[in-house]
């Protein structure tokens, strides 16, 4: 009996952690904070300045991300006027965390990230394909492989760039009907 209770408690704990992680990541702002802290650790003050937040609001978001393992505190340092500051760095845990509504969230985050950029100056590609399921899977795997190659070997003297990629069925009715879905 104790084993069943223990297994049930562990399952409940895992469900609670997943729910908490989902809530922590269900914000375009928090996803943008994670991206900001990906290569360089930043203090709460720096995060607040980057996103135009007051320090208290920023601290709420930072604590939520820390509590769920998405940000980790690094060694305390001395900041302006001798104040003690804690820099935070993204852990990468968010990349493997699945949440409900993830697709729409990623698109909203992308739109916030490019807001204010001269979009005519950005590299963009929009293209259609007609592929078998096997070739589609091959394309997706190759894209992921190339993306991971560049992500995992950042240039120390490089500038930061973002990437948004979506492979999706074309939206017009005849394409959806041909594949058997509507």
From TrEMBL:
Ranges for region Disordered: 152-182
SUPFAM superfamilies in alphabetical order: Winged helix' DNA-binding domain
Segments forming domain HTH arsR-type: 20-112
Gene3D superfamilies: Winged helix-like DNA-binding domain superfamily/Winged helix DNA-binding domain
Pfam family for this entry, one: HTH_20
Domain of life: Bacteria
A GO term for molecular function: DNA-binding transcription factor activity
Protein name per UniProt: Helix-turn-helix protein
